[in-house]
């Protein structure tokens, strides 16, 4: 199996690097510059997750979630303290998408949107829940089939 890495399109690469450093504790591993000195790609790691950040490329379908008004994924971190992780991200410039709350599947979870609109979730394990109990909750929410 190969390692997994994210390549995110962001509105402003230097500002995104700053956000990910302050909001998620990212470490910069490499910066690739264009001839004019601007950043082509910033490479980071967040708790071992490799990430690359790049600006939208005119004439291509590469766009930020904020510019398209949608997000197709939520990137999830397992953390010791979901509330502290949310607070750190918000203080760095994220907005709350869904506040931290205890979920019926046994985690405390919350989501933020970063400045480019990418969704980041923070899951704090609370207890193991049997699959049958989770499925019963889902059936109650969505009606039994």
Features:
145 residues, alpha/beta, 4-stranded mixed β-sheet, 8 strands
How would you explain this protein's 3D organization?
The chain is of the alpha/beta class. Helix content is 26%, strand content 37%. It has helices spanning 13-24, 65-68, 82-91, 131-142; strands at residues 5-9, 27-33, 39-46, 49-54, 74-78, 95-102, 107-113, 119-125. The strands form two sheets. A four-stranded mixed sheet has the order 1-4-3-2, with helices on one face. A hairpin with a 5-residue loop joins strand 7 and strand 8. Helix 1 (13-24) runs antiparallel to helix 3 (82-91). It is elongated and about 60 Å long. The model has no long low-confidence stretch (mean pLDDT 92).
Roughly what is the average pLDDT, rounded to an integer?
92
Secondary-structure content class: alpha/beta
Largest sheet: 4 strands, mixed
Portion in beta strands: 35-45%
> What letter string, H or E per element, gives the SSE order?
EHEEEHEHEEEH
Give the C-alpha Rg.
Answer: 18 Å
Strand order of the largest sheet: 1-4-3-2
Give the N-terminus to C-terminus distance in angstroms: 37 Å
Label the overall shape.
elongated
Low-confidence stretches: none
Number of helices: 4
Share in helix: 25-40%
Annotation, overall tally of beta strands: 8
Helix and strand layout, with pairings?
Elements: E1 5-9, H1 13-24, E2 27-33, E3 39-46, E4 49-54, H2 65-68, E5 74-78, H3 82-91, E6 95-102, E7 107-113, E8 119-125, H4 131-142
Parallel strand pairs: 1-4, 5-8
Antiparallel strand pairs: 2-3, 3-4, 6-7, 7-8
Helix pairs in contact: 1-3
């Amino acid at each position: 199996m190969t390692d997994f890495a994210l390549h995110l399109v962001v509105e402003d690469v230097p500002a995104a690097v700053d956000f990910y450093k302050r909001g998620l504790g990212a470490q910069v591993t490499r910066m690739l510059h264009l001839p004019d000195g601007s950043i082509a790609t910033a490479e980071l790691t967040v708790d071992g997750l490799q990430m690359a950040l790049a600006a939208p490329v005119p004439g291509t379908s590469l766009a930020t979630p904020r510019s398209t008004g949608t997000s197709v994924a939520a990137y999830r971190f397992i953390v010791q303290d979901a509330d502290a992780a949310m607070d750190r991200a918000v203080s760095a410039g994220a907005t709350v998408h869904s506040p931290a709350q205890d979920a019926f599947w046994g985690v405390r979870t919350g989501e933020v949107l970063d400045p480019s609109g990418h969704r980041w979730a923070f899951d704090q394990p609370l207890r193991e829940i049997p699959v049958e109990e989770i499925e019963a909750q889902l059936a109650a929410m969505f009606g039994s089939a």
